[in-house]
Predict the structure.
Amino acid sequence: MTTLGLVPAKQGKAVFLRKGETIEIINTHGNQVLDTWAFNAHDVTEHMSMEHTRSVNSSIYANAGDVFSSNRRRPMLKFRKDTSPGKHDMLLCACNKELYTELGCTEYHRNCEDNLREALKEFYLAPPSTPSPFNLFMNVVTGANGEILRSTPASKAGDSVELVAEMDLLMVFSSCPQDIKPVNGPACTPSDMHYRVLAPGTSA
């Protein structure tokens, strides 16, 4: 039996995955974007790379069956299952404090980049830089002239994805704190997310 883990609204969470284990990520309320990173558990200089993944898969979109590659072009995660409409982003960077300053915030605003660093501190680690995340449930498409178009999430409450670890990993999640733009739905209200770690060979 597995138990639900929590990624609180506006916060980050790091999770250790052994090779072969699956993580099921659940969009509990249906409206939340989850910035997602993966690091080699034994060497954080190797990380899941959106640039290399797009190159290896020859696609700017992520689909069940795809493999996410590291910055050393090694498989890190297998995208096994997706019960959502399949709207996930591999183009945009993580939000940071500078973004919220641009949006008019005069005081500190929680952000995904700081959530990543806080989560890794629990393992006494710090990333050498901030890799571009896999933005789960973020509804981004490209226009006819290459425009990046941001829409509200298409997922519904309870939609989930399953990712299989291809090596020992530290996964880091940030329940995106964006509450100014409708990235997390028209109410602009970030919410909790949940996850389960499943034994090798099992599925939710």
Q: What stands out?
A: The longest strand covers residues 75-82.
